[in-house]
Amino acid sequence: MGRHLSHKIALCPTPEQVDYFKRACGTARRVWNWALAEWHKERALGRTPNAMALKKRFNALKYRDPAWLDANGRPWLRDIHRDAHAQPFAHLAQAWQRFFDEIRAGKPAHEPRFKKKGRCRDSFYVANDKFRLQGTTIRLPKVGEVAMTEALRLQGKILGATVSRTGEGWFVSIQVEVPEAQFYRKRTGDGMVGIDLGVKAAATLSTGERVQAPMPLKKALRRLKIRSRRVSRKLEAARLAAGFAPRAPLPKGSKLAQSNNCRKSAQRLARMHARIANLRADFLHKLTTRLCRESQAVVIEDLNVGGMLKHEQLARPISDVGFGMFRQQLEYKAKRYGTRLIVADRWYPSSRLCSRCGWKNAALTLRDREWTCPQCGAQHDRDLNAALNLERLATEGTIPYRDGAPAPYTRTALPVASPSGNGGPAIAIMPIAGGKVTPVRYEPQCGSGQEEKRVRNGARF
Ligand SMILES: [Zn+2]
């Protein structure tokens, strides 16, 4: 049974190739929008839409319908390789499937949306029989050989490729079905670690280590402000020059003529955003890989990232570190290293419990960085104490703690630990083997494309 992985490689295309890439992305986007509009129409008529039937209909009209012909009456779709305009139908079907699955699982979900130029991820697909790799070049249909910055690192059956753009950079993500042996990585340690995520230190480990995140956004924020102000000023000028009302949204369908300087400064801004995203991803990848490689069990909190982002003071530092990405990276890396990832229940009072005796400090506030346990006298650093409390979830299904001082000392079972990633039922008691957790192999799952995930999350954080 093979596993799916993908490797994302930067491309060095020529200007002509970039031109084709842009047109192919535009085609994929336009076909997606057409298919989604038709989908909604079918639903409005009370029918059950079907992506493959839509594709058939599209194939029948794509070289004839006036909407898909250029000014000379020529079908411009012929210039774009067909994978770019066939794949959106499959993607749309997947997107609806995911939407309904999430609804059924009771998770917050949103319907597939229309893609807007400049606001969506630009990408197009190439099927595995349509491209060929040779060392550091990839031969793509319609554009020929494109230089890559490195050769494909994975060995196995190539499943397909997606060409995408980030800022001004072009990338190809190659999906490969690799043998199990290549999928699983060797762990170098058998420790157990609890991780408290925070704003002061990005991560405090139960080993006592504090990991500081590079705060790229914070440092770059001033620059970012200046640059985005420059861009918006130029856009505003272009708007006035074109006779549009200032600060009002452009009428639908109208196009603003932009000066070269305006375009250039927009590019500069995009590059800056891309750099920040790279710094953040690099830090998180290194940290999550290290945690999974060196531990047999990793315990984290179930942070309500969406809720925290609504908090005015917390939003920026949290998105700067990328907590959402952190969790997702841990999830797929834990699978590869055979590390058990335990996610504490959202209501587990990891900061409030004394990690030595289990007394619960109900009066602890967000401001208290340090506190002393009145029961055993232990001095606690807030973050380290929380990390220690999380760590013990790896070995204990029950945590000794008591609510309020005069109550008799009881061992309270907390329905807290649930293995993450496989969607299994929450279990209260971890397997205990001489105080250690036995590593768990996860059930085979398809389509855990690591780079794909990174990119998807990168867009959000
Ligand atoms: Zn105590």
Order of helices and strands: EHHHEEEEEEHEEEHHEHHHEEEHEEEH
Mean pLDDT: 81
Quote the beta fraction. 15-25%
Radius of gyration: 26 Å
Largest beta sheet: strand ordering = 2-6-7-1-5-4-3
Q: What gap, in angstroms, lies between the N and C termini?
A: 33 Å
Largest sheet: 7 strands, antiparallel
* Shape summary: globular
Portion of residues within helices = 25-40%
Describe the structure.
It is a single chain. The chain is an alpha+beta fold. It folds into 2 domains: 3-181, no CATH class; 184-215 and 290-461, no CATH class. The protein has helices spanning 15-44, 51-61, 82-104, 180-183, 216-241, 260-294, 305-309, 312-321, 323-337, 382-391, 450-460; strands spanning 3-12, 123-127, 132-134, 137-140, 144-148, 157-166, 169-178, 191-197, 203-205, 210-211, 295-301, 340-344, 370-372, 379-381, 398-400, 411-413, 418-419. The chain has a 7-stranded antiparallel sheet. The protein has a 6-stranded mixed sheet with strand order 10-9-8-11-12-17. A two-stranded antiparallel ribbon has the order 13-14. Strand 6 and strand 7 (169-178) form a beta hairpin. The two termini are 33 Å apart. Residues 397-461 have low confidence and may be disordered. It binds zinc ion. Zinc ion binds next to loops.
